[in-house]
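Risk register update: the risk of archive-format incompatibility is retired. Evidence:
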Amino acid sequence: MRISIFTQDERVYLPGSVATLVETMPEKITSIILSPPMSTHGGAIQGLVKHLPVFGVKGTLVMGWRTIFARIGPLLGLKPPGRKYWSIYEVGKKFDVPTFYVENVNSDEMNRILDAHPADILVSVSCPQILRAQLLRRFAHGGINVHSAPLPKYRGLMPGFWILQQDETETAVTVHDLAERLDNGEILLQETISVTKDDTWDSLIRKTKEAAGHALVKAIGQIEAGTVERSPNRDEESTYFSFPTWSDARLFRRRGRRMF
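Archived output:
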């Protein structure tokens, strides 16, 4: 099965998830396609204004430094702290997988990439854009995405934040079919992850992103073997959360939770 990976150019948490896929099945990956990270939608200034009330001054500085360091670290010949790769570009280069950057996944540019590097399935990791049906029809097996929450609960943005704010004791990573509605496709598999009182947003993200890569490998294996058993992602059982506001972040901290 030929696989095209679609994700965002995020350099702190996602390289490990993508690396798990590529390291496990390098001969099957025909392309890696990156789009702008969600934190930059609307521009850097708007992204800062949006994230500052949630992350706080200290958290924003920590995240900003990690993002900058992930770009300058390889230029200085340093090794990435606590992980194997500085970026998804580095993963693609090591395994000789063509890696591209597109602003809009539903664009002619995306179609040209897929014409040159055809695939049977599109695998989305932290899908930053909604993929239209016309694009998904290009793939014999459609597309799948991994979401860091126990769907149908916690659809939407920053599920790790909301899991902690709601004092959940466990979460999950869910592999599901891509649909034109966010986090709405049928569920292929779901892996449960424990949440401790000491977990921060940062530690929980690291847990779920590590689990996400392995869950995708397992799901792809089931698709290839014809053993996958899909289950409904029921709208009537769903909850949806948007990007947190200042008041959401205040409740998060009142409940003893921390971003880092």
